[in-house]
Amino acid sequence: MGLRSYIITRILLTIPTLLLLLSMVFLVMRVLPGDPVALHFEKKATPEQMETMRRLLGLDKPLWTQYIDYLWGLVDFGYFLEHGYPNLGKSMQTYEEVGGQIFSAFPATLELAIYSMIIASVIGILLGVVSSKSYNSILDHLIRGFGTVTYAIPIFLLGMIFQLIFGVYLRWLPTGLRLNPAVDPPASITGLYTIDSLLEGNLFKFFESLKALLLPSLTLGIILSGMFIRMARTNMLETLRLDFVTAAKARGLKESTVTYGYALRNAFLPILTMMGLQFAILLGGAILTETTFSWPGLGRYIVDRINFRDYTAIQGAVVMFGLFVTLVSLVVDILYAYFDPRIRL
Amino acid sequence: MPLLKIGSLTVDYRTSRGTIRAVEDVSFSLEKGETLGLVGESGSGKSTLGLSVIRLVPYPGVIVKGHVKIDGKDIVRLPEHELRFIRGRKVAYIFQDPMTSLNPIKKISAHFAELIRTHEPNVKEAKALERAKTVLKDLGIRPERINDYPHQFSGGMRQRIMIGLATALNPDLVIADEPTTALDVIVQAKILDLLESLRNAYGMALILISHDLSIILERCDRVIILYAGHMFEHASSTELHRNPRHPYTQGLLQSIPNIELADQKLAAIPGSPPNMLNLPRGCRFWPRCSYVMKICRTKEPPLIDIGHNHFVRCFKYSRGRAKS
């Protein structure tokens, strides 16, 4: 099977997965206690007003009609072409297009996810390799200790410590938001402020947005690095004692060639899988980090909407999340085949 | 000056359950072009001894005593960066399992190019590949297969590639650690023939490690019998074959099947090798030995020179002392 038909099959296979996911969220949201209309009016409306609102939102229709209507909206291709995002319905609280809301919240999440993944991978793989190379030494124990601590520490705690040190005492970095409110955001091309400001050629905006990104991505990156260190260390230890590593040393190859070209490149595959999954989870929104740093991303959007039982918004977010997971795992599989010649797609 | 000179080499594995002395007080030397066989059961220390020659004893192994001199240079005391010029260039090592000895994600070409260009940095990539192709051709592998990955070759072919990697730089010494154990019998003989022909062509010295005494006697000039880290017997192959002295060696020879005596019942040495964490007092072999004497249970026998370059570690041959 060629690469293209593999990718097409995998994408087609995501449809039943997403459908299943969607049906479950659709049902669970409606079974859970809490009524979007009552929460909207905070019990200040008359029963008639609430009934009107229900009708407007389509909540008076039988469940299966609502379900079909929702699915019908999803496959509305004309809507997709017009707006650039699928029709995920209107929010039950703000009556805005859910697709549009998610679309505008997503770049913030994506940017945070990319930077924290870079930080976590660099710290994790580097320390993991060093740790495995100095197996059972003091350095190894120190790194493992660091890994366990970062893995165990609550993310908001570390975030708040950073905010206190770098934001309140030292006043080096902002403690929240994507950009200093006094600065206009760069023209939206990719939606990622650091990239857009560079495309605009505006270094000032670039550094401003980088400054805002630093604390949240550092917090998230350090927390994630604990898991990466562990993973890199165990896989490296396993690979380092394989025959081909010893054989490479016996041929007199450079230490760095043996460590990186032989051991790490083989140990990297399982790490890659975990990185992919972690990245997909991050794309769904880093709820705690985004809340701690008032980061206007998907994570905060979901938390806000759940509080109001905003059915359509939650459904939309879940569909997006499912889409990310399947897309990222597809990319990981393709990368896997690229890194390991034994795997043919 | 001999090519390789090992003196009172002792290697320990410092495990969490205690120290295992895998190789104890081993001394021998090897001339240019000579072939030496190391024979022993699993755990006798033969691989540890072989890996000590290029100082690659795996963790937690440590060379605690002795020297390993290659061309007069003691590699036990050499800094790591100088060792690199000995490994692969002067001494090459062939491992037991060809299925796992090649990097699965690198092409054969990369294996050769890396090796050649590590040791001869002036050689261009294209030139290195040319040389690699010639090596493959000599091994009976089509040169265009250099662009394949290890998993696309059979076990026998992979071991030939390992031999090619070992001999590509024309080293003075090749150590082959059970190079055919993982292969079937027909391929075994071919691989050993290949090694022998390359050795004859380039005049390399060879240390062949095996648990199979018959292979060693057939292919090596000299033999060292190892048991629980000790040298038990050391003699030329013809001498050892004609005149085995140690009860252990005699047992090994008797357990080689003979094709002319099809109905013969094979002799076996009773018992099993000792637990290295809990060695018997005295001679390490006495619990399995049919000639055991009183002294064997209390004292460790020395390596005794019985003439004709024949050495045995057994009280049977220490004149006068055995009776004390």
Structure description:
- The complex is a heterodimer of chains A (345) and B (324).
- By secondary structure, chain A is an all-alpha fold.
- Chain A has two domains: 3-93, no CATH class; 101-295, MetI-like (MetI-like fold), CATH 1.10.3720.
- Chain A contains 15 helices and no strands.
- Chain A has helices at 3-31, 36-41, 47-57, 63-74, 77-83, 98-133, 138-152, 155-169, 193-200, 203-240, 243-250, 255-283, 287-292, 298-307, 311-339.
- The model of chain A has no long low-confidence stretch (mean pLDDT 89).
- Chain B is α/β, with parallel strands linked by helices and 324 residues long.
- Chain B has a single domain (4-105, 149-323), classed as P-loop containing nucleotide triphosphate hydrolases (Rossmann fold).
- In chain B, strands 6-7-8-3-9-10-12-11 form an eight-stranded mixed sheet, with helices on both faces. In chain B, strands 2-1-4-5 form a four-stranded antiparallel sheet, with helices on one face.
- In chain B, helix 3 (108-119) crosses helix 4 (125-138).
- Chain B is globular, with a radius of gyration of 21 Å.
- Chains A and B meet through helix 11 and helix 12 of A and helix 3 of B.
